[in-house]
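Two folds, back to back.
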Amino acid sequence: MAASKDAAANKPGPAQAADKPATTSPAGKGDAKSKGIAVLEGLLGKESAPVIPLPGRNKIEPAKKAGKKSWLKGLRWRHAIIGASFLGLVAVPATLASLYMAFIAADQYHSTTSFAVRSIEGGVSTDILGMFTQASGGSTVSDSYILMDYILSERMAAAADRKFKLEDVYATRGLDYFYGIGSGLPIEDKLAYWRDMVSVNFDHASGIMQVNVKAFDPRQAREIAQFIVDQSDNLVNSLSLSARNDVLRAAQDEVLAGEARLSKARAGLRDYRDKSQEISPEEGAKLAVQLIGGLEAELTKLNADLAAAKSQMSEDTPRIRVLKTRIESLEQQLAVERQRLGTGEKAATDDPNAPDVAGRIAEFEELETEREFAERAYTAALSSLEKARIEANNRQRYLALFIEPTLSEMAQYPSRLLNALLVTLGLLFAWGIGVMSYYNIRDRA
């Protein structure tokens, strides 16, 4: 018993065991390992782990708690900024836009009209729908685009301003300063507002053009739409007339040139006939040849009679003298007629500059050839002019109006719910992009 008591008295207590190094015995190593696991579990935040008093532990815990409080404080500050930005950039503007659309925005009425630029060339359609939907090729497509540009051009806006006074038609209604037009604006600003109030849609397949005009009064919207139709019709007619004149101008110039040439040829032929006093020298030559032939036949007969008389009578008989006289006269006449075929006028008029029959025929043939060629050219020019006129008529354009400007009974614009929704979505989208950009930059930093 005494020995056991001494062993118990010599057994180290808990404090002494803690002061001894861990490497003194295997049992000490196991105790140190369990203490390390307990400290690690305490650092990981496990509540079930035992808290082991270690040197310096009381100094580390306050710093850890202070860091956690600062993180929560920073998180609350960022959330407050994000919430405030949502209210200022999304909620409040969207609410104001919705209130504006619901109670302040003025009603707008629209007038719609539809027409198409058509050409009369090609086959004629047998149904009414074909009159408006048959495509005449690419010839009218360019005219349709020209008309679209004209409706939305500064010239159209200026013409509408002179007729309707746009500042009065689209003046501010009540507190709606957003959709109303200002006063004293330059033509560029009026054109921008005109393009907001007038829209043009063109269907390339059918060639149909639809014009939509908005205004604060339905009657004014219809009047402006009718004005656009009238101006468009005038433009199409002027383009058609200009194209027709361009096609006919060249043909008309050819006709005028051919007519002048033919008149000159006819005047030259008339002067020649006045000078020569004959319709045609060829006909005169034919008559002269016939006359020479008759004279030669008569001269041959007289020579035969003279030979027969000489065989029966003496030279001094009256019959032989008469025959000789007649033969001499015929020979002189025959010589004169033969000279007229070559230089007849020289012998007859003693004019060295007077042409003979051959010269007159050559001059007449030249004049006659010029006249015939001028007539043929003039006839061809007239035929070309007629063809050009037919072609110009086939190329003629016209405005086919098949929907008159309408008169609205109910306001269609502005789209209050849609506009408010679009404003809200746009603001929300922009705000979301800003928030995501901030967090992206913060994470990368």
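---
second:
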Amino acid sequence: MPTHITTQCSIDNYPLQLHKLERLSNWLLKECAVPDHDVSIVLVDDRLIRELNNNYRKKDTPTNVLSFPFSEGADLSSLAQIPVKELGDIVISLETAAREAIQFNHTFHQRLSWLLIHGMLHLQGFDHERSKSDEKIMFSREQEILAKLNKKRGQQMNHLAINVDHIATIRQARGITEPDPVAAAAICELAGAAGIVIHLREDRRHIQDRDVYLLRETIKTKMNLEMGANKAIIKIALEVQPDLVTLVPEKRQELTTEGGLDIVTQKKKIAKTIEKLGKGLIPVSLFLDPDKEQIAVASEIGATFVELHTGRYCDAFSEQDQLHEFELIEEAAEYAVSLGLRVNAGHGLNYQTTARIAALETIEELSIGHAIIARAAFTGLDTAVRDMLKIVASAKSSL
């Protein structure tokens, strides 16, 4: 890869994800028209960057970023003979970056992004210390790159799909006609939801056949029909033609879906279901635990999406456990995308756990139901949806 990252200090105390930094650096190389060059990023503490600043700039103080162009002082004709194109080294102090993030009211990653852009421009010959006019030129280029980066991140913002099953659960508790999930879906869409999710279970404990047919007629955004690989329900799906079918496991005794499909042991059955739905031009998503073996099979048997099960991440008791589960989801999403799959995520997400998942660039859509319906009991459904949309929308800008 064009970017090489090394750490010469402890990174445990920083919200740092090296693969994101690498991805940003590779994007910057393309943006700066040098995608065929290598760049080295060295992450250090204040002590080490102070030593470098003193040795090379005669300033005995820590700084935020130093750049060392590979071509500086070199004979250009000799450089042309080297088979590898080197841009140079960028040294960033994580300690200073963390302090400046607080000072400028940025997230740590936002500050790190700016320092990387600043360092990359120095490698290309920009120098704000040379003159006032050079300072203006460099500042203008920084702002141009930041604007493109923010636009890129904004375009990748996740969609929010609302599961209205629990509106039907309340209705079924009394065996009457209210509240109606069809009306709830309309409110969710008016509040900004990008899709509606319903789960037609074999035992019909909440969503009923009538709901499925009516929702197909009334949903204006996108209809995601969750279901088991059941012949009768497959028949309904083929008649209704949802925009997406998400295959999920079902157990009659469970209160809600407890984990992802095991498609490794059900490969033939799930493959046949995908084939049947594919003939009806219905794309299929598979609800899976963040497990690479399961994801590999999903790709092999023709799924279009995987929806990563976020339940263990949401239910983690400690910060350490939650971080571990998050990293599994992140790695699984990256792997799925590398196989050509599209990625959604859901299950158990609430107003405390959603932001971190929503910040993942690899995930297109979040499916959230129970937390929103529970909040709606106190705030109203429109407000509950809008509150969640704010979390999802702001997550990308916190990268």
